[in-house]
Amino acid sequence: MLYTYTRLTTKGADGMNNVNNYGPSHQHKFAGVTSVNLNHSHRYSGFTDPAPSGVPHSHRYYTVTTYDDGHTHIVSGITGTSIELPEGGHYHNFGGESSISGSTPHSHSYKGTTGIS
Questions:
Q1: Burial of 54 from C-beta contacts in 10 A (0-12 / 13-18 / 19+)
Q2: What is the C-alpha separation between 32 and 99, in angstroms, rounded?
Q3: pTM of the predicted structure, to 2 decimals
Q4: Is residue 70 a contact partner of residue 102, using CB atoms and an 8 Å limit?
Q5: How far from 44 is each of 7, 81, 99, CA to CA, in Å?
Q6: CB atoms near residue 9 (< 10 Å)
Q7: Which residues make beta-bridge pairs with 101?
Q8: How far apart are CA 29 and CA 21, in angstroms?
Q9: What are phi and psi of 41, to 5 degrees?
Q10: How far apart are CA 109 and CA 100, in angstroms?
Q11: pLDDT, tens digit (0-9, with 9 covering 90-100), for 62-98
């Protein structure tokens, strides 16, 4: 698990930026294999963007797949909200459709769970 410090900037009613310090934040590892389309699939892995610890939250994620069948795809999105575990820690579900790429344009579906934090 990676720990960082999260700062969130928001616009106040007066139009000025307000910076809120949420204290410790964290990231999750994610990895998987896409669906098989046009007789091939792609692997992907990465780390989510940081999010505040200790409160319900989601993470943004972005990575590029492995180079297979002459091309790559982008896998990106926002995880589901945190799912707490009885023994402590939490994880997130994620999934979606990759970017369109390839000599025959296509995408791949993907889904999974992040590592536990």
A1: exposed
A2: 16
A3: 0.79
A4: yes
A5: 28, 21, 13
A6: 8
A7: 106
A8: 24
A9: -135, 175
A10: 11
A11: 999 999 999 999 999 999 999 999 999 999 999 999 9
